[in-house]
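S.,

Sequence below, as promised.
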Amino acid sequence: MWGDTDLLKSLSISAKVHGIAPKHSKKRYINTRMPLALAACLVLAVSLSGQMRILFKADYSSAIGERKTVLLEDGSTAMLNTDSAIAVNMKDGKRSVELFKGEVFFDVKPDPSRPFLVHADHSTTRVLGTRFFVNHRKERDEIKVLSGRVEVSDNQIWKDPVVLGEDEMVAVYDTKIGQPKKLDSKLATSWINGFLAYENETLESVIDAINRYHPGMVFFRDDSLRQLKVNGRLSIRDSHDMLKVLQRTMDLKMTYVTDWVVIVG
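The prediction came back faster than expected:
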């Protein structure tokens, strides 16, 4: 693995992002790959420590590849997609959920006297009784409504909230709220039924989704493959099978360094 220049470059960039890039030693006898090995270990340690902090704060969480349904005290349900975590507050007349990571499908029991709030990194969603998703992504939150009506704010104390109705969705970023769009409910609910469905989606986005179900890392050696278009559906029962289906149907070269590390291209 240390002979792969793309992998070493990725590790170096990750180390700089986390502020843990080792300085070059003046001693000639030290192996030049050791600093990158150390960087890899430190990146992993930083990632794991962040995951542990989330799990300590969460009331409910799902493991990689797991889906979990939780019945809340008010009669609402929350279905956690893979690698998700939430904290729930049903005290003092409140109904609120904090989404730390992942994606959750909420089926909210109506209660006009107590709005149901979902807080994520970039957004706050307020509903009375409806069925909707909140997806916590790295650079944005995505809110998707199957039925009912929701209000979405960018965490600026309900400044110019966006109202969504049935089969609508919106993305919320650090500095703005996107325009509401029509939701393809069949694609949005596919993971609930045990598969991922795609229409004209990029291979990079599909691999990113598979990474959420895959206990390991998938890297691109050939960046030109990232924009290849994918149509179809993949069963989420086994992440390795998902990769093998992509490999066969798209005639991709995939190198399995271990079960944990896969290189595309």
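The helical segments are 5-17, 34-57, 185-188, 203-213, 239-249.

Coffee later?
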